[in-house]
Amino acid sequence: MNKKHILIACGTGVATSTVVCMRVKEELEKNNIPATVEQCKVAELPSKIHGADLVVTTTAYESDDIPVIRALSFLTGVGIEEDVQKIIDILS
């Protein structure tokens, strides 16, 4: 399987993206999905999105080029299983 590239974005690229990043990495390892996970600010996405396979964000963002998952569930715990499954489905 090719190594995937995932961008994890939040407003500042620090606090909430760190929480989401750690959880996404855990789930990728559990499901044997090789990936590079990179944190950034939402404002940086347009310059970083080329070559990425997925964007996971805690704020509003849309792309016509690659899938975007708005994953507030990683912060609230509500609906996290569904978001994890979406990530696995997209990357598998």
UniProtKB/TrEMBL annotation:
PROSITE patterns (UniProt xref): PTS_EIIB_TYPE_2 (PS51099)
UniProt keyword terms in alphabetical order: Sugar transport, Transferase, Transport
Domain of life: Bacteria
Spans traversing the lipid bilayer: none
Domain called PTS EIIB type-2: residue spans: 4-92
Pfam families in the cross-refs: PTS_IIB
InterPro entries: PTS_EIIB-like_sf, PTS_EIIB_2, PTS_EIIB_2/3
Protein name in UniProt: PTS sugar transporter subunit IIB
